[in-house]
Write a structure and sequence with these properties.
This protein is an alpha/beta fold and 226 residues long. It has two domains: 129 residues, Rossmann fold (3-Layer(aba) Sandwich); 83 residues, Rossmann fold (3-Layer(aba) Sandwich). Helices cover 25% and strands 30% of the residues. The chain has a nine-stranded mixed beta sheet with strand order 4-3-2-1-5-6-7-13-9, sandwiched between helices.
């Protein structure tokens, strides 16, 4: 099952939100302020979690009429986005797209990157997506299809990843020791239909990025999926 979580970070554009819904036909969950994004766009959703203190009375009333709502106190030992992730997992989701997971709160962004690691442990493919970025966490070698993002960057998450190799890109690597935060593996570019990512151990954070909203380039790659 596909699931979409809309969280309370920078709201996705209406075009991106509609595109994800059209392509994935997902089970939709809202994390706190993400509920208002969905209400404003007129998109039906099944589950909403959070404290919802940022929603006005009209939005709270509409929320109760449209979704199964679980209200948590503000003081808790997990984020609203994690609560939505847990609900998606309980529904049997095998693929999750998270919108509204980036923005001005870097602490929440780091927590959401941590959710990517939790998803791997739960055998769920999870993508953190906004209008300029797609973030995935890899735990094994993969062939990455060229999509609408011009730039491709990599970083180790946690321990150094030994014997990291990268082909099909402008700046290939062979048996490189991939470290967290190294500038060497930032802003690479596709030179082939697929980028070959090879490593034997560790976790690799992969970021596909664009200065302009990536939907502008989507017509050039109609078969792209996330």
């Amino acid at each position: 099952m596909n699931a979409l979580i809309v969280a309370g970070g920078t709201p996705p554009s209406g075009a991106l939100l509609q595109e994800v819904v059209r392509r994935k036909k997902p089970f939709i969950l809202a994390a706190d302020r993400g509920a208002k994004v969905l209400l404003d766009q007129g998109i039906a959703f099944e589950v909403a979690v959070g404290d919802f203190d940022s929603l006005d009375e009209d939005s709270q009333g509409a929320l109760r009429d449209r979704a199964k709502v679980t209200i948590y106190p503000r003081a808790k030992d997990f984020t609203d986005t994690f609560a939505a992730y847990r609900a998606a997992r309980e529904q049997g989701a095998k693929q999750i797209v998270l919108l509204g997971g980036t923005g001005s709160r870097i602490d929440h962004l780091l927590a959401n990157i941590g959710l990517l690691q939790q998803a791997l442990a739960d055998s769920i493919r999870m993508t953190l997506l906004d209008d300029h970025n797609q973030i995935n966490l890899l735990n094994q070698s993969q062939e990455i299809p060229k999509g609408p993002f011009p730039y491709l960057s990599f970083s180790a998450l946690g321990q150094t990843v030994p014997h990291f190799s990268l082909q099909g890109v402008r700046y290939p690597l062979t048996d490189h020791s991939l470290r967290f935060g190294s500038g060497l593996t930032v802003s690479n570019e596709f030179q082939a239909p697929f980028a070959s990512v090879r490593f034997k151990e560790g976790l690799v954070l992969m970021l596909q990025t664009s200065d302009e909203p990536f939907l502008e380039a989507l017509p050039q790659v109609p078969d792209w999926s996330f």
